[in-house]
Amino acid sequence: MLSYFRWVLFFVALLVTLIGGAIFFGHEILVAGGPLEKSKSIVIPRGAGPLTMAKLLHDEGAISYPRLFRVALMVDPNPKPIKAGEYEIPAHASMASIVDILQSGKQVQRRLTVPEGATTAEVLALVRKTDALTGDITVDVKEGDLLPETYFYSRDDTRDSVLLRMKEAMDKALDEAWRKRTGGLPLPSRRDALILASIIEKETAIPAERPKIAAVFINRLRLKMKLESDPTTIYGLTGGKPLNRDLTRADIQSDTPYNTYVIPGLPPGPICNPGRASIVAATQPAPRDHSLYFVADGQGGHVFSNNVYQHNRNVERWKEMQRQRQLEQGQAAPPAPKR
User: Fold this and answer.
1) 20 to 30 A Cα–Cα from 325, which one of 92, 157, 201, 297?
2) How confident is the model over 44-84, as pLDDT tens digits?
């Protein structure tokens, strides 16, 4: 009888040793570096369980022991739900660290940059072709509704959700600028500020010029002078598409509600989606600036003047620079901007 109990104790001890060894060995495999040679984005589909995830990670080359990974998920003493989505798995990540990554819910953040001055049609086209977004566009957005910025999104976010974020961002930016606006502006509403900001956006790409361009248009509005803005006139002709040629006399006399050579005051709506800097410029123009005119300076910027005599001299100077350049290139000089 004593011998029998000794054998039982021996097998129990052996079993405990084997189990302990297996646990130790399994733990060592879980924390050891994985086979992935370089970081990789892996998509966990909706409804995936331990078996599916283990097979997927093995097929993607992220783990070597899918069964052990599945067991690790099922016997986790502190289990956390794993959300479907796209996850960045670092090179040589251990199975234990992969479990942590999947349970963290920190998915790959993709980015979509909307350039300042893009029309809403251009933004919609950009969103439609953006990789990893889902769904058709059903949200109603108009010209000037969307704030140009860089937006982060995750795989399978809807196109509508991204556009609604752009719209909300524009509303907040416009509200903030309107609250901080300079007193006495001839802009009855924040929509007027948005319209003016869109014109400023299209008139210059130089940050330092935006408040000065704004001052010119504000001064003209106060004096009830026509704005005479080329970008608004082009928008009336093309709906926001490039004109791809110089404005003609017929264009300047065209009968559209956006032709500010003809209509008084602001056009009926924005001509693009302006950025934050142009919105701030429209609501906080350069102080004590009495300029009424500006024309290209031939160097990518503009030269400003307070009266038509100075402006005409600046226009002649610009024409002469253009003539010299065109002569050097053997081409005819284009007409100067009239503003």
Assistant:
1) 201
2) 998 898 899 999 999 999 999 888 888 877 766 677 888 88
- Answer whether 318's CB lies under 8 Å from 295's CB: yes
CATH superfamily for 16-104 is: Endolytic murein transglycosylase (3.30.1490.480)
Nearest to 257 by CA among 283, 227, 278, 223: 227
Residue in 249, 273, 272, 274 with CA at minimum distance from that of residue 262: 249
Residues with Cβ within 8 Å of residue 37, at least 6 apart in sequence: 61, 91, 92
Q: Is 23 left (phi over 0), alpha (psi -120 to 50) or beta?
A: alpha
Q: Is residue 17's pLDDT more than 50? A: no
pTM of the model: 0.83
Give dist(CA 39, CA 47) in Å, integer.
Answer: 24
Q: Distance (Å, rounded) from C-alpha 19 to C-alpha 28?
A: 14
Which helix (H) or strand (E) segment holds residue 304: the answer is: strand 302-305
Q: Tell me the three state secondary structure of residue 249.
A: helix
Residue spans of the domains in the chain: they are 16-104, 110-170, 186-329
